[in-house]
Amino acid sequence: MDLTYYLINLGIAGLGRFLDIGSTWYASRTLLLESNLLAKKMGWKGILIFNIAICFLAAIDFHLSLIIFVVSALAASNNVGKAWVTQTVGEEEYSEIFKEWVRKAELKRLVFSNIGGSIIFLSIGLILMFLTSNFDVVAVGFAFVIFSCAVIFHRSIAFYKMRKDREAKKNNS
């Protein structure tokens, strides 16, 4: 493998992971708002070590680096979009307010909003994957599919835990 090719791929994957990790740091320095339970458990040191390894591994192939970049950029955009709230009221207050909203919301509205919003990204990904023969475009589409599935998965777990806490509080009262 050509070293230049590998370094370019490393830069692509590294930029994506930097955007995601940097935006996570900006939105939730304590990781209180992190929906990825594995990342939350690893902490910042673990996140950095894991992502450095991912970047070096992804650099082996351009399309893998491109997928890592697109998924990471979409996650970063999501983080930055809500960071103004955490920067205004603080992570703990935002977390408590959000948990209360989730507890009050009708289950069908939570499910529809979570899946419905992600279907938009899923549809973009599927269109890109199945309406072209260009593998670069297919890789970008696949990244959209991965992102939408990850959002559905992580938010569903977070919503489930918040609602389960609500039921536990009701039963203890």
Explain this structure.
The protein is built from 6 helices and no strands. It is mostly helical. It has one domain (3-172).
SSE pattern, N- to C-terminal? HHHHHH
* SSE-based structural type: mainly alpha
Roughly what percent helix? Answer: over 70%
- Note the overall shape: globular
- Total separate domains: 1
Largest sheet: none
Mean pLDDT: 93
Strand content: under 5%
Tell me the total number of β-strands. Answer: 0
Rg estimate, integer Å:
18 Å
Tell me the quaternary state: single chain
Q: Unreliable segments (pLDDT under 50, ≥5 consecutive)?
A: none
In whole angstroms, the N-to-C terminal distance is 64 Å
What's the number of helices?
A: 6
Summarize the structure.
The protein is 87% helix and 0% strand. By secondary structure, the protein is mainly alpha-helical.
List keywords for this structure.
6 helices, 173 residues
Layout of secondary structure:
Elements: H1 3-27, H2 37-58, H3 62-89, H4 91-104, H5 107-130, H6 135-172
Helix pairs in contact: 1-2, 1-3, 3-4, 3-6, 4-6, 5-6
